Amino acid sequence: MPLPLPLPLPATPSSQTLKIGIVGFGNFGQFLAKTMIKQGHTLSATSRSDYSDLCFQMGIHFYRDVSEFVSSDLDVILLCTSILSLSEVVGSLPLSSLKRPTLFVDVLSVKEHPRDLLLRVLPEDSDILCTHPMFGPQTAKNGWTDLTFMYDKVRIRDEAICSSFVQIFACEGCKMVQMSCEEHDKAAAKSQFITHTIGRTLGEMDIKSTPIDTKGFQALVKLKETMMGNSIDLYSGLFVCNRFARQELENLERALYKVKETLLQRMNEDHDQERAGS
């Protein structure tokens, strides 16, 4: 009796190989580049600092001349700058050197700011995809599976290019969340910004591990260390460039005041009871 044939492997969504140029080749740009290279995409990069040696080792063409980079016939230009420097960096790109309509993608932790800027300065025939990978080199050191990738198709004419780029994250097992830039910033102000704020507040208090740490306190120490490990530019950008962050900061201040008032009221009630019983 013949042996049964092996079952076919599940089909993976088709996507084309992309020519991706990264603007800003710092830690996060390098982090994304490793996976994109692994998937077979062709990468190039440009940055204020000279990463030519590192790019050579990774198989990436590094452009010192931004004009040559922009005119190198790219499918995608991926903006991996800091939040606060995005306007300056995009403003320095010689967009007239673009040879054809190109998909511009940002990966910033705020979304309305890059959306508005790119809509204002890019050529009309340039597509815009605003994204936020909700992870980084530390949180995704064991892979991207089940980690959230948010995206908003702000202005897309070439669906094939856009779909192929989004598929980079879907193929790695990310949780794909499509939402508007406004919805993202509302949610991020309540989550990411507050998380950074609590971590930096604990840093200002200089909390440290003790011999009698509870699990909860250990989590707070880890939060402090993680948040303080991020640049102050990132934290400032989460506040300055997210119009919903100020309200959440005020909400946090009111909540802390309310908690303090509750404790003082309880303390006064206990003192009153003690005096009444004496």
TrEMBL record:
SUPFAM superfamilies linked to this entry: NAD(P)-binding Rossmann-fold domains (SSF51735)
Residues covered by the Prephenate/arogenate dehydrogenase domain: 18-278
Protein name from the UniProt record: Prephenate/arogenate dehydrogenase domain-containing protein
Alphabetical list of InterPro entries matching this protein: NAD(P)-bd_dom_sf, P5C_Rdtase_cat_N, Prephen_DH, TYRAAT1/2, TYRAAT2_C
GO molecular function, one term: prephenate dehydrogenase (NAD+) activity
Species in which this protein is naturally found: Psophocarpus tetragonolobus (Winged bean)
Presence of keyword DNA-binding: no
Keywords: Oxidoreductase
Record GO biological process: tyrosine biosynthetic process
